[in-house]
Amino acid sequence: MAEPQPHQGAFAPARRARSMLTRVPVWMWRMFMHTISKVEVRTLNSEPITDVRYWHDIDFVGDHIHWHLLDVMAPPNTSGEEALHPLPVYVYFHGGGWTSGDKASLTKYCAGQAASGVVVVNVNYRMAPNFHLGHVLEDANAALVWVEDHIDHFNGDRERIVLGGDSAGGQISALMAAATIRSELAEHYHLHSALQPNQLRGLVQHCSIVDFSVFFDKGFVMSLNFIRMLLPQGDDAASRRKNKHLHVRHHLLREAAHYMSPIEWLDSRCPPVFVTTSERDFFYDSNMNFIKTLSEQGVPVDSMVYSWGSSNTEHTWQQNFRYPESQEVYRRLESFITRVTVPA
Asked: What is the pTM of this model?
């Protein structure tokens, strides 16, 4: 793991300028993400990978809406006489601050993993502010139910599953892992977990929002309205009406964030984790806290942490195949998945 550099030195002025981007409201984040989304789909998927098989837009719920579609990508020899032994399955959730993003922007990233010998499932889900976090996790669980029921048709091994995601998608995958091993979290979200703990072999986190305590840090990039947005409609409004005192509302918001924060739920039963982040990542502190907490609990953590001097490592740089840092992530990710999914 690259050692994080101290917050001093030649890049300090750049850090100070960057620190001005604080408490971004939900509407501004959505506007920015929607502006870049079409560009991302085009640029991140240029020079498509042709030596894998693609199944696009599979309806995993059955209601024919865009949010409930997933893609499957697999090596070419996954059916008929050419089929090898069942392959590990990597289920991926895109980021976008819970309000935007789409599986389409991750097509090449996922295809690259499929080319390494993995069956990859790239998932869409309902998003805020029209839907709350309970809906998001319901969709994630429904996608895993689909994997449980159908992945063998793509030569995937349902007994060797790795969950992953970037940014908000990382939080979703980590909460699903936590709900698999913590029944009280699953019950909070009214989920009947699709997976058994022994099926979950690993967890991949790229620049993920895994520690919600950072939302309460002075100067954090996202406003507290992101937490309010993830609550069921009316919950926070009712809390504000009942509690006139700001410190009481703040305390109640922290209590709500507890159920959104994977770091507070994953324990020694967590499968091995692969974390990639950098000092340029908005959620660097969140990821470093996550690495430290899991390591202290004895969870095997493989991490790649780039310093501020690595200019290509802005938030979710892993999606851009052109960067040498991304290529290194892919190599380490392939090694990680191979290692944690060795057949029992």
From this structure: 0.91
